[in-house]
Amino acid sequence: MIGELIKILKITVLTSKNSKEIAKKPWKLNSIRQTVTFASSSSPVTTTTTSVSPPQSQILTTRRSLLSGEITASEIAKSYLSRIRLTESHLKCFLHVSDNVLKYAQEIDQRIAKGEELGPLAGVLIGVKDNICTEGMPSTAGSRILEHYRPPFDATAIKKIKELGGIVVGKTNMDEFGMGSTTEASAFQVTANPWDLNRVPGGSSGGSAAAVAARQCMVSLGSDTGGSVRQPASFCGVVGLKPTYGRVSRFGLMAYASSLDVIGCFGSTVADAGMLLHAISGYDRFDSTSSKQEVPEFQSQFLPMDLFESKPLKGVRVGLIRETLEEGVDSGVRSVTQEAASHLEALGCVLTEVSLPSFSLGLPAYYVIASSESSSNLSRYDGVRYGNQVMADELNKLYECSRGEGFGGEVKMRILMGTYALSAGYYDAYYKRAQQVRTLIRKDFKAALEQNDILISPAAPSAAYKIGEKKDDPLAMYAGDIMTVNVNLAGLPAIVLPCGLVEGGPLGLPVGLQMIGAAFDEEKLLKVGHIFEQTLKGSSFVPPLLPNVA
Ligand code: GLN
C-alpha cells in the first residue's frame, strides 16, 4: 500500500524538478483510474415534480413554533427521539444517544413558561461527531483506543452551542480519527445511507450527515480535514459547510491533521448550516490558530423567497473549475453539475470556466501532509498519556500492545505512511515537496478567486457507492477525495448543497454541488447557496426511508 502510494507520488511529485514543472504535470483523474476502479457511470434522474416547496430552516421553524406556543420543546424532542428509535437499527448513525435530551427540553419549556429570553438555538437538536469532546458523554473518535472515554470538558464549539440553548442529541459514527470516506473504518459500526441502506453515507462524518438526512436531528457537527463534511453531505443529500481554517476553534476537536482540520456544519438547509456556523465561530484563546476576524451576522442572507428579485444573483461571478469535470467523473454527476451551473446563470450569475493548473496535485500532496501530521498527532495515544492501556511487563511492550490493539488498520497505515514520509532520508522528497505543492494550490485559488466571487465543482466524482465496494482498495477510496482536498490545503471555506439526483437506490441518489469562496467570505457562499437552494425546482432531498417527513 505504501509502495503504491509512493509510486503515484513519485510519478506526480518527484519527477518534477520545480514548482512550475509540477504544475505542468497534473495528476489526471483518469490516471488514477488506471490504478483503481470507480463505480460505474450513472445517468441523472429527471424528476417531473415541479411543485415541491423549497426546504424550510429547522432552526427558524423550531424557534417560531416554540415562541408561538404551537408546540413545546419536549414534544419536539420526543418526536425526534422516537424517529431515532424507529430508524436507528437500520442506519446506525449514533454511537451514543444522550439520556438528557428530554431533561434539557423541559428546561427550555420552563424558561418559556416563565417568559425568559431564549437563546437562538433553544430546543434545536444537534448531533455531534464523536471526535468532538462533550463533557461526560462518550467521545471515542470512532476508535477502540478511546472506548469508554468521557471527557471532563466541552469543546469550545459545544460550549457555545449549549450557551445558546442547543441540545446535544448524541455522538455520531465516523471513520476512526477521521481517516476514511465511508464510515466503514469506524471501530464500532458501519452507518448506512438513508437513500439506500446498501450504500455508504460517505465519510468520515458519515454519521452526522446521515442523521440529518434521516431527520434524527435538526443539524449536526462534523469535522473536515480533506472533505469529511462535504463528501458525506453530497452522498446523503444534505448541506455541508466547511468554514475557513481558523473561523471555528479546534479546542476539543481530536486532532487528525492540525493544519487542515476544521469543525463544520450539516443542515437540511443552507440557512441551518449557516446559523449553526454562526453559533460556533469566533476567536478562542484556547486555540492559537483561531482567527480574530469578525464573524458577520449571516442570518440577513437568508431572505424569504418572496423577497427575491427577478435576477437575485445578478452580476455574481462564478467560475466552474474545468479540471473537476474531466474524465474520471461519473457522467451523471457531470450533467447534474452542468445543470446546476445553468441554474446559477438563470439566477443572474456570470458563469465562466476557470482552470486550476495545480488541481490534480492536491490529492498526493494531501495524503503526504495529512498522514505526516497524523503520525505525529496520534503519537500521544500511547496507553500512558492518552488512550486505553493494555498491560505488559515492560514499557515498549505496553506501547506496542496498547497501540496495536487500540488502532484499526486504516489508522495504522496512515501512521506508517506519515512516519515514512517524515523520516530523515525522505523528508525533502515527500513532505517538503508536498508543502511546495500546497503553496502552488493556494496561489492558483487566489488567482481564480480574484477573477470570480465563487468557484464551483462537483463535491465528489460519484454518488454514494455500495458498502464494501472500496473497502479493500484504499487508493480507490483516496481518489474519491479529489474534489475536496485542495480546499483544505488552501484553508478556504466551501459549502456543498444537493443539486440533483442520479440513478441508483429506490428514489435516485443525491449529488452535491461544491461552492468555494475566498478566505472568511462564508457570507457570500451562504447567500448564493441559499438562493440556489430555494429556487431549485424539481427535486426534494428527503430520503425514501422517510416518506412522511417534509
Ligand atoms: N477522506 C479523507 C481522509 O481520509 C478526508 C477525511 C477528513 O476530512 N477527515 O483523509
UniProtKB/TrEMBL annotation:
GO terms for molecular function: ATP binding; glutaminyl-tRNA synthase (glutamine-hydrolyzing) activity; hydrolase activity, acting on carbon-nitrogen (but not peptide) bonds, in linear amides. Its EC number is 6.3.5.7. SUPFAM superfamilies: Amidase signature (AS) enzymes (SSF75304). Its main location: mitochondrion. It catalyses: L-glutamyl-tRNA(Gln) + L-glutamine + ATP + H2O = L-glutaminyl-tRNA(Gln) + L-glutamate + ADP + phosphate + H(+). Keywords: ATP-binding, Chloroplast, Ligase, Mitochondrion, Nucleotide-binding, Plastid, Protein biosynthesis. It is found in: Mitochondrion; Plastid, Chloroplast stroma. It comes from the Eukaryota. NCBIfam families: gatA (TIGR00132). This protein may be expected to contain an N-terminal transit peptide but none has been predicted. Subunit of the heterotrimeric GatCAB amidotransferase (AdT) complex, composed of A, B and C subunits. Belongs to the amidase family. GatA subfamily. Allows the formation of correctly charged Gln-tRNA(Gln) through the transamidation of misacylated Glu-tRNA(Gln) in chloroplasts and mitochondria. The reaction takes place in the presence of glutamine and ATP through an activated gamma-phospho-Glu-tRNA(Gln). This is Glutamyl-tRNA(Gln) amidotransferase subunit A, chloroplastic/mitochondrial. The gene is GATA.
